[in-house]
Amino acid sequence: MIERLIAYYELLARWNKKINLTALDNPDEAIDRLLLEPIAATRHLRPADIHQLDIGSGGGSPAIPMKLVIPGLNLTMVEVKARKSAFLREAIRQLELDHTSVETERYEELLARPELHERFDFLSVRAVRVEARVLMSLQAFVRSGGHVLLFRGPSGPEAPATLVPPLEWMGTYPLIDGLQSRLTVLSKLSLGHAVFHVEQS
What we know:
Blueprint: H1 2-16, H2 27-41, E1 51-55, H3 63-69, E2 74-78, H4 82-95, E3 100-103, H5 107-110, E4 120-126, H6 132-138, E5 142-152, E6 167-174, E7 182-188, H7 191-200
Parallel strand pairs: 1-2, 1-4, 2-3, 4-5
Antiparallel strand pairs: 5-7, 6-7
């Protein structure tokens, strides 16, 4: 696993000289954010969390490191920019990642594909502005009982202020102390539970 994480990071560094995939100015911080944060986040997955959808995959973190730690994941990465998608496909090839694919589209366009609705056990997202409208769109891809994982920095409240059913805040957990980074975990309630929560509130 360590060898493959190193191989991923080296591939990322090589491609980053040609196209702007991510900031690698500070190697220690880059390793913490791009490799160690995703590894820490896997502690919050359940054995049944097999199907992952990663939104705005960019240079492949957190999705690819999570896949390297848990090879059994079925991973779908979503990246609208063609050059970044090309890197992701090359990373899949070089790292020999099975059950891994890339969608070169905006996530809004994927909402028109019924086969993707409620297909995934969990969804991961970093560097995407998380608003109520965005969360309501993204939850459509997650099955009832599934989770949304939000990779966040040190600022902002513990729970998203605009959260509405069927999403419910489960907790916000520290990832890397030096970065003060956090992982917010949201759960998607079943329809019955969601209606109950609305009536109670």
